[in-house]
Amino acid sequence: MNQFFDVPAGGRRIAVVCAAVLLAAAVATEGADTGSAPAAIAWTVSGGLPLAALAARRDRFDAVALAGVLASCLVTLLETRTGARPETTFGLVETCALLLVVVRAVRLRPPLRATALAGGALVALTVIVLRLPPSEYERLVPFAVPALWFAAALAAVLGLYLRLLDRYRAQEHRAGLQAQRLDHARELHDFVGHHVTAIIAQSKAVRFATAAGCPPSTQELDGMFAAIEEAGSQAMQSMRSMVAVLRSPGGPGAATAPGGELADLRTLTQRFARTGPATTLALAPRLAVGGLPPGIATTVHQIVRESLTNVRKHARRAKAVTVDVRLDGDTARPAVLVSVTDDGPGAAGHTGEPADLGDGPRSGYGLVGLSERAAMVGGTVTAGAQAGVGWIVEARIPLPGPLPDPPLGPGDDRTNATLDA
């Protein structure tokens, strides 16, 4: 079945046309057994309409199926009034097509309409054996009619099964879309929160400096307002992009939804350093080349972004921030280690011992979201104060397998960048 769907559309179309020609030829061959040209034509029409109903579009299925059922009954009635009857068959292809009409009607149509179409097909199946010569009635009818009824019952059961399967798939699809919407909404919170904290930090800096009697110069004000304007524009762009994805998750906008890869960490830290403390990014080159699975790479980017946002919120006296992303573990079971450290002394919210965010009471939607995201890819997140360092957020995310070795220069093992605010 999968090999069939792997065939290009043109090949599938040719296969369908060939199958339709073969079935039509089989119906015409059965009709030719009557020995009468008009009967053969009528037989071909009555057998072709149920076959056409199977290939008809959903909005045209009812009309074509009803026409096929009526044509089958009419041809059976006419053949009982005439002597043009087949000697060896009562229409096996047409019988199979009527059974499949029952399956499709039960699967696609509401209960009342499905019952009407399936009932009409059952009547056509019941009387179709009358196309044989009367001498065959006593020998075949007692066995053929119950067998056809049983086959119709099986067809109805198959249609119900497919109907339930379609409903389950639709529910699963809706649940997936809802989960995707929630994930995008959380992304919106993280992106907008990251940019808004930059705006708040710059605004407070101007207020505090002015209140202290040291108002910023015109050039400094222009730089601060430019940073505020940039952060606001980025927040609005993130909101517009995310709202488009929320309206149509999985559509074309999903590919352009705000997201993050490891290659974007340098841009992220540069923007953070413009309105915050000096930032050092240490990124292993094997990770910088993009060898991580997309889900893990996005999770690492989200951990770094949310940690920097928390530094701006809670460690206002921090002078330096270090972002370290590296590989850990053996080649058979590697993991990505992420740490974001600031030197803020006793900042609000930066007290207490390191704690695993996956267990026990948790506060703050950002850190809770980080632990949930890391858990989705099998990782853990810890956060807390560390003596002599400040506040540190650490995450360990296992990889599904070893990474390919990128081409390295002589002595290269890390990529470092120090960015001053």
Short description:
The chain has 421 residues and is α+β, with helices and mostly antiparallel strands. The chain contains twelve helices and seven strands.
Notable characteristics:
421 residues
Beta fraction of the residues?
5-15%
Radius of gyration: 35 Å
Q: Please give the share of residues in helix.
A: 55-70%
Structural class: alpha+beta
Q: What is the oligomeric state here?
A: single chain
Listing every helix as H and every strand as E from the N terminus to the C terminus, the arrangement reads: HHHHHHHHHEHHEEEHEEE
- The N- and C-terminal alpha carbons lie at a distance of 60 Å
Strand order of the largest sheet: 4-5-6-3-2-1-7
- Poorly predicted ranges: 1-7, 251-259, 351-364, 408-421
Output the number of helix runs. Answer: 12
Overall 3D form: elongated
Largest sheet: 7 strands, mixed
- Overall average pLDDT: 75
Number of strands: 7
Molecular structure report:
The protein has 421 residues and is of the alpha+beta class. Helix content is 61%, strand content 11%. The chain has a seven-stranded mixed β-sheet. Helix 3 packs parallel to helix 5 (92-108). It is elongated, with a radius of gyration of 35 Å. Mean pLDDT is 75; it is low at 1-7, 251-259, 351-364 and 408-421.
